Amino acid sequence: MTATASKRDVILVTIALFIATFMCAIEGTIVSTAMPTIVGDLRGVALMNWVFSIFLLTNAIATPIYGKLADSVGRKPVFIIGTTIFIIGSVMSGLSHSMLVLIIWRAIQGFGGGAILPVANTIIADIYPLEKRAQVLGLNSSAWGIASVIAPLLGGFIVDNLSWHWIFFINLPIGILVLVMVQLFLHEEKRRVTSRMDIGGTVWLTVMLLAIMYAFQVIGQTPIQWPIVALCVLISVVASIMFIRRERLAEDPLIPMGLFSNRTFVAQNLVIALMSGFLIAYEVYLPDWTQGILGLRASMAGFAVTPSSLMWIVGSFIAGKLLVRLSPFRIINISLAFILIGAIMMVLLPAYTPFVSFLLISMIVGTGFGLTTTTSIISVQNVVDPSEIGVATSFNTLCRTLGQTLMISVFGIVMNVTMLRGVRQTDGASLKMMDKLINPLTANELSGTILPKLREILYQSLHNVFIVGLLLIIIAYLVNWTDRKKSESQHD
């Protein structure tokens, strides 16, 4: 903002950024809560994971693009364009009449959302001095916790009383409010474009991500078409090599390769990618457990994750206070300990576990992620040159998104392979029956003799997903520990 920006304008811009962050944060949980009903309406349980993965994929591709544009043409126009695209994608997703159409518009929605989180955090870095930045980022990060409290309850209410279409339409009034506030109160000097967009790097990054994602999706289908998988892997490897080569030679690269010479920058971004991958297992598949196995309605399934949302808010505020006393390494280490406990409990859950067990897990996991969100951003901003804070922030967001994007496919593979094996080994079972089981509104159409068998198949599938999630947290803990000495010395 300009030097003449009033305190009132700064506060109102901060509120607008908070609302925008809330709008993005609510998306994952509210869609996962409604997904069983969406699958029951549009059919296609095999395509279910693409509803999440395509959003995250286009979000990942868009993040570095918007980050670079924000540095060259300004934060305000980029933020407004991205938010507008997000709103259009949301409305059209709500109007979808098939899983394929829904996936297409979710891709548009994700591309728009790629601007909101990184540019919002960059704007906060612009308008607040370093000593206040941690607390404001903590406040902004609490939007994730608040959204997680509201989203399951709101999603369950909408699904039970209206229709799943309205979980997308709700972004329209929220998005318009954000656009109006940013337009009126964010005062930014116009910038002259000083560099050309790294089109080559953008193309190679897009090809790399699309190829590897499609490979994972094909592996999750039966029969597995190995020639297609091999071709996708080959394309991804070639695109990766070309992307790295392009970035090293580019005058103004999309992602500067020099950042990767900083061990702390690499380690902390890898940690947040692994943690974000685990979050997908928790947010996407836990509702399937409570609805498909326990037979709870969507609104009740929402209560299972409410404690995590509340503790996320608490953890975010605590992290803002701790960052002035402890190094980011120590705070992330503490957060990983909380999440590790929750991940172990998820793996050990019996099929018909008491509902209170989900509440306890939610509290533990929510505390861990609340401590992490702000700390991760600060940790990478502190180890780069001030002129690279925008790029570093965008890359941190990209790593979060990549972790989620890749792991939703991995979890989908684990889920589909286990489910297909279970269906084949169970007389009278079919994938269509699994579609009905996941949706509690249609589960009562299944016969009493086949229902327990289908629930056992679903339990084994979810159990394997949670085992993979546990491995991610163990690896994240080890990676964070290897960066201990460097992180501590930089904090001192």
TrEMBL record:
**What InterPro entries does its record include?**
MFS, MFS_dom, MFS_trans_sf
Query: Do you know which Pfam families this protein is assigned to?
Result: MFS_1 (PF07690)
Entry keyword set: Cell membrane, Membrane, Transmembrane, Transmembrane helix, Transport
Q: Which SUPFAM superfamilies match?
A: MFS general substrate transporter
Subcellular location as annotated:
Cell membrane
Membrane topology of the entry: Multi-pass membrane protein
MF terms in GO: transmembrane transporter activity
Please, which domain of life does this record's source organism belong to? Bacteria
A GO CC term assigned to this protein in UniProt: plasma membrane
Question: Key word Membrane present in the record?
Answer: yes
Residues annotated as domain Major facilitator superfamily (MFS) profile: 13-488
> Chief localization class?
membrane
Spans through the membrane: 12-35, 47-66, 78-105, 111-130, 137-158, 164-186, 198-218, 224-244, 265-286, 298-319, 331-352, 358-380, 401-423, 457-479
Name the record gives this protein? Drug resistance MFS transporter, drug H+ antiporter-2 family
